[in-house]
Structure formats: structure tokens, C-alpha cells
């Protein structure tokens, strides 16, 4: 007759990195090396700091632009957009206006195409966007 002893061992689970890829948690891009991800994030940081040459807009101009943006986004996005997954809203604007509002949230910039992209994802994205645009309700 064999006895079964049951031991309780405090267990620490160390996540094994089986996937050797590094992911940008904003745009989801995958990189093979940490260095490549770091470089990507450095480039992104540059998009948000390079444009000291742009006009500084008066506060109320920025505010008015935000009001227009909120209106535009609400018109373009259906109410239930959160269930619809990724949504893209393209907004024609001047570079100064866009930069004034979305600085620090710019994730992609193309000089040749003159396109800026901001990516908002995850649970807090709605709140972040609301804060940027000073949305009420
Ligand atoms: Zn990214």
C-alpha cells in the first residue's frame, strides 16, 4: 500500500519568453530584437518633439479646433464603435493645428505623404482621447 504525500509548495511563476519578438504596445508592430523596438520608440518620440518650427497657436484657436474635432469624430464614428474594432478617422487639418492638439500622441509621420497618425488603443484609449479633446460627457 503506497502513501501519497501532498506537498504545498509556494510557487513563483516566471513567465518564459518563448516568443522572441518585441511588441510595440501602441501600434502592435513586432520586432525581432529589443534594440529594434527601442529604435522604433525613439523615432516615435522624435515625431513628437521635432517641430519647434511650427507656429505656436493661441489657446483659443486650439480650443476651437478641438471642438471641431469632437464634432467631426462623433459624426464619423458610430456610437457603438468600440465593438467594431479598429476605426480610422482621417482629419484634414493644418500641421500646426494637428501638432498642437496631438503632440505626445503622434505615432507615425510620413514626410513624403504629409501624414501624421495617432493610435489610441486599449481600455484607456477612450479616456485619453476625451482628455486630449476636452470632451464632455
Ligand atoms: Zn509602434
Automatic annotation (TrEMBL):
Residues 22-56 form the C2H2-type domain. Signal peptide: none annotated. InterPro entries: Znf_C2H2_sf, Znf_C2H2_type. It comes from the Eukaryota. SUPFAM superfamilies: beta-beta-alpha zinc fingers. Gene3D superfamilies: Classic Zinc Finger (3.30.160.60). The keyword Zinc applies. One of its GO terms (molecular function) is zinc ion binding. Keywords: Metal-binding, Zinc, Zinc-finger. This is C2H2-type domain-containing protein. It comes from Rhizophagus irregularis.
Amino acid at each position: 500500500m503506497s502513501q501519497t504525500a501532498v506537498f504545498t509548495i509556494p510557487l513563483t511563476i516566471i513567465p518564459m519568453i518563448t516568443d522572441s519578438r518585441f511588441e510595440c504596445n501602441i501600434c502592435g508592430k513586432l520586432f525581432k530584437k529589443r534594440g529594434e523596438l527601442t529604435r522604433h520608440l525613439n523615432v516615435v518620440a522624435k515625431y513628437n518633439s521635432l517641430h519647434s518650427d511650427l507656429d505656436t497657436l493661441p489657446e483659443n484657436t486650439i480650443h476651437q479646433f478641438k471642438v471641431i474635432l469632437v464634432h467631426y469624430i462623433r459624426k464619423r464614428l458610430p456610437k457603438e464603435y468600440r465593438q467594431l474594432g479598429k476605426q480610422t478617422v482621417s482629419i484634414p487639418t493644418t500641421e500646426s493645428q494637428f501638432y498642437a492638439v496631438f503632440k505626445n500622441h503622434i505615432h507615425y509621420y510620413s514626410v513624403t505623404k504629409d501624414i501624421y497618425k495617432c493610435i489610441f488603443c486599449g481600455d484607456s484609449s477612450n479616456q485619453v482621447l476625451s482628455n486630449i479633446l476636452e470632451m464632455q460627457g
